[in-house]
Amino acid sequence: MATYKVTVATGDMVEAGTNNSISITLVGSYGESRQTTVPFLFQPGKEKSLSVHCGQDLGPIVLIRLHKWRLFLEDAWFCKDVRVTAPNGTLYRFPCYQWLEGVTTVEVREGSGKKLVDDKLQILKEHRHRELAARQEAYRWKNFAQGWPRCLSVDSIFELDSNIQFSCIRATNFTGFLIFQGASHFLSGFLLRRTSWNSLDEMRTIFSRTQGRDIGECL
């Protein structure tokens, strides 16, 4: 009997937690564990600890699978990382940093940086191929119009996976900055101006600084 200590961390952003069911499977060089449920009620910035019992030693842990089931209502979960301590004390880290939505299974490799030639196990080679195929599916391009730069092959940003979209915080900051700049230009008279500039001094009254230097120094 081999017992592995597992710690699952939830991200600290707003609504990162979930009430849905989360379970984990450990995959090692010699085999894999049974699917084990993580205790409920994941809260932002908090960690959950559990023990995974296996009939035999799994060898070096190379991969984990996170399984998510929807209970009644959809409640997305942002997993920060997972840490696994083997019976011999070896610590394995699995950085996740992504949203899990709906009923899904996500595979996360151990965090050590490795090249393609370092993948000796067939399961790691297959995982790399699946990951590449998923990225090719997510980042497809199309021609918006003749002569224009290519763009993502979606009709709306809401068709994109949550891990590709701007985060809620970034989108809010971007919108707030846009509103602030628009109001500043409106109050300074820039947005209402219909005539040409008369001098650089006049431009300085509106654009006083550009990257920390006077406009006159940039022209």
Automatic annotation (TrEMBL):
Which Pfam families does the annotation name?
PLAT
Can you cite a GO biological process for this protein? lipid oxidation
Give the residues the record marks as binding Ca(2+): G17, D75, A76
Instruction: Give the pathway listed in the UniProt entry for this protein.
Output: Lipid metabolism
Which SUPFAM superfamilies has this protein been placed in?
Lipase/lipooxygenase domain (PLAT/LH2 domain), Lipoxigenase
Record-annotated site: Essential for stabilizing binding to COTL1 = W99
Can you say where in the cell this protein is located?
A: Cytoplasm
State the UniProt keywords alphabetically. Answer: Calcium, Cytoplasm, Dioxygenase, Isomerase, Lipid metabolism, Metal-binding, Oxidoreductase
Q: Name one GO cellular component term.
A: cytoplasm
Looking at the record, the residues that make up the Lipoxygenase domain are 114-219
Which residue intervals define the domain PLAT in the entry? 2-114
- GO terms assigned for molecular function: iron ion binding; isomerase activity; oxidoreductase activity, acting on single donors with incorporation of molecular oxygen, incorporation of two atoms of oxygen
Give the family from UniProt.
Answer: Belongs to the lipoxygenase family.
Name-wise, this protein is: LOXE3 isomerase
Q: Whose protein is this, by species?
A: Lanius ludovicianus (Loggerhead shrike)
